[in-house]
Amino acid sequence: MSLTIEQVLDDAKRLVDRLRDHDNAADSLIEQSTTLNKRIEAMKQYQEDVEEMNSVARHRPRSALILGIQQENRQIRELQRENRELRVALEEHQSALDLIMSSYREQVCRMLMANRFDRDCLEKHAEYRENSMASTAKIIEMAAVMKQAIELEEKSSFNIEQQLTRLQVENRGLRELLEISRAVHFPHSPSNQEEKRDKEKDPKSTIVINREGANNLSESKSPPPKKDQSTKTNSGTGSETLANDSKDVGNTKARPVELQDADEQGVFKRDTSSTGTVGGDKKGDDAAQGEGAIDLEVENVLNDFADLTASLDIDEDGEESEA
């Protein structure tokens, strides 16, 4: 009977399976034998221990052994109770430690947040301080500029007021000189008669050239300046204008005189000849006779005015040097 290859292979597979089963069974038997050996050894050890205990306890009675075992049991129970208490205490300690650590973590977080907030506050404070210092420097600079501007404004206002007072005094002096010259040259004019009547009614309103008027009289007698130099007054030209004014007043007989009074009567013009007569009438003779006394009076006034102008020039030079 011929065998096919498939049958041979099947038989080989069966043999292999059986061998594998035999190996597994042998392994299990080996394990069982090892466990049995271990049990046997343990039983031997137990037997030896029992024999040793019996050999030790032969000289003691059984009641003593029982008492000893009971005491040992009590001690074991106490130890177990202590172990339980220690376990409970350990658990409580762990819970308390957890609470402490959680509070510690919270405090650390708060401190970190506070430090961060303080750092931010310090940075903002530094920025605010820098800004305040810059604004303070600007304010100080502006205050210095304003102070300088105020000083310049005060100086300019003082100069303007001083110039205004000088012009007012000059105007008063010019009016007084105009009235004197009108009284000399036009004694019988209607305006002079009206002034005489006013003076008779009010004797206190006499024509007096005060020291303040004399201070600026020289400036008023000076020739009218140009438009660009109308506001400038020089202390050095006071005496020169006084000399020119005295010459003009002394020579009123030899040259024509033009008087202007825009406030009262408009324009008066008078021409006098070299002999000092006015049309050869009696009014001209009276004016010629009174001119000598008036010239002396005017010269005295001009001398006083020159002295006062010199003193004012000295004061102005001192003020300019101080400024």
Query: Structural class of the secondary structure composition?
Result: mainly alpha
Poorly predicted runs are: 203-283
Order of adjacent strands in the largest pleated sheet? 1-2
Give the beta-strand count.
Answer: 2
Spatial gap, N to C terminus: 154 Å
- Range of helix content: over 70%
- Give the helices and strands as they follow along the chain: HHHHHHEEH
Rg over CA atoms: 70 Å
The coarse overall form would be rod-shaped
Whole-number mean pLDDT:
71
Number of helices: 7
Largest sheet: 2 strands, antiparallel
Q: What percentage of the residues does DSSP assign to strands (E)?
A: under 5%
Region (Disordered): 185-289
Organism: Acanthaster planci
Biased composition (Basic and acidic residues): 193-204, 245-258
Keywords: Coiled coil
Note the main attributes of this structure.
323 residues, two-stranded antiparallel sheet, single chain, FGFR1 oncogene partner 2 homolog, 7 helices, SIKE, mainly alpha, coiled coil, rod-shaped
